[in-house]
Amino acid sequence: MISFPNCKINLGLNIISRREDGYHEISSVMYPIEIQDILEVIQSEKLKFTSSGLDIPGGLETNLCVKAYRILAREFNISPVHIHLYKNIPMGAGLGGGSADGAFALKLINDLYDLNISNDQLKKYASELGSDCAFFIDNIPQHASGRGEVLAPYNVALNGKTIVLINDGTHISTQEAYSNVTPQSPDNDLQEILKKPINEWRGLLVNDFEKGIFKNQPQLAEYIDKLYESGAIYAAMTGSGSTVFGIFNDSPELHPNLQNLPGFVKKLKLK
């Protein structure tokens, strides 16, 4: 069985407080984006994971797809699987690609073995994999709170807009990102800001990771400036970086400084 794990962007990201369990209390709206990996799961005599495309660091036991299988094998009497992942979404990019792979592995294995696990239960399993994995079970725009696993559908009108995503290959670990941020309550409620017209988001809808990350990676702030110069109605960094994005009313002619970057520049129509 084959599926196509997609990535996400964060529309605003507030780091509100540090919790007693070591995680952080956050508020963000996550929005699915159709840049995809390819994930295949078939029955096998022994558990096996292979990959192609972008390199995937770490061993078998640290891979979220393998962890997804182990969670379900713990709960259900299922035979081993061979998991193959074609990796297209860059890692350490704030796009949630690894989280998507783990969540989609849960869904694929559920279908492969006709386990009939509800989405609510799949979200609980996904939360064992990582804070934002549960988002990819329903895979619709959602407000995330708690450590990212408390989800509620959120309607944000981006249909028909064009998004440009820029990733220059810079890898930023989540640990590095959190080490440069001071948790605090936001001045403005993120969900209320998102109800305003998009051209009013600038300066109000913030990603709290940006300030610390931009000190070490100033080129990311420059990309955002160039997106605005290219006509973006809103631009920001997604997640803990390093990907930045701009939202446009129409397909833009990008600033020359954005046209020959390492990594990728992707332009998509939002649905």
Q: How does this structure look, described?
A:
The chain is α+β, with helices and mostly antiparallel strands. The protein has two domains: 2-153, 2-Layer Sandwich (Ribosomal Protein S5, domain 2), CATH 3.30.230.10; 162-269, Alpha-Beta Plaits (2-Layer Sandwich). 27% of the residues lie in helices and 28% in strands. It has eight helices and twelve strands. The chain has helices spanning 64-75, 97-112, 119-129, 135-138, 174-179, 190-193, 210-216, 218-229; strands at residues 2-3, 6-18, 24-36, 38-43, 48-53, 81-87, 142-145, 150-153, 162-167, 234-237, 244-248, 264-269. A four-stranded mixed sheet has the order 1-4-6-5, with helices on one face. A hairpin with a 6-residue loop joins strand 10 (234-237) and strand 11. The longest helix has 16 residues, at 97-112. The chain is globular. The mean pLDDT is 95.
Q: Which band does the percent of strand residues land in?
A: 25-35%
| Strand runs, count | 12
Tell me, what's the shape? Answer: globular
| CATH first level of the largest domain | Alpha Beta
- Structural class, from helix and strand content? alpha+beta
CATH architecture identity of the largest domain: 2-Layer Sandwich
Order of helices and strands: EEEEEHEHHHEEEHHHHEEE
